[in-house]
Amino acid sequence: MAAVRRGKSSTVLSSVPLQILFYLNVVYYIFYFLATLLMIIYKSQVFSYPDANLILDLALLFIMAILEAVRLYLGVKGNLTEEEIPLGISLVVTVGNVILSVYFLAWETYVLRADIIINAVLLIFYGLEGILDIFSIAAFVS
């Protein structure tokens, strides 16, 4: 007697390019976090870095790391389980991380050329993942 599937069809809707981007982003974000942390330490030693700004920059970097971990976890989970809610939450958290990345790109106390380069790459990741998130959510809903 054959088992009858009820509910979702057997068609796989998960996005392989999105999954690849999530995994590449994990590796890149580890590099990004360490590089940004080391650059903040460098800038605090070389330039006159106000203590309040140093604390703010470090706090925002650690908040961004926490949000990034949540974003990537929910994105991977939502894509693999083909659920739009975790993927949608991941997309909303991406907006928060884009704002933080723009802070480190433009509004940080001291912005080095290296800051511009690593934040530009991170924003490209966020843009590509955001587009693929929207397409995946649309595929899951339909």
TrEMBL record:
Keyword Membrane found: yes
GO biological process, alphabetically ordered: non-motile cilium assembly
Subcellular compartments: Cell projection, Cilium; Membrane
Residues annotated as transmembrane: 20-42, 54-73, 85-105, 117-141
Membrane protein topology class: Multi-pass membrane protein
Chief place where the protein resides: other
Entry annotated with the keyword Iron: no
Domain of life per record: Eukaryota
GO CC, any one term: membrane
InterPro entries per the UniProt record, alphabetical: Uncharacterised_TM-17 (IPR019184)
This protein's UniProt keywords: Cell projection, Membrane, Transmembrane, Transmembrane helix
Stated name of the protein: Transmembrane protein 80
Organism (species): Microcaecilia unicolor
Gene that produces this protein: TMEM80
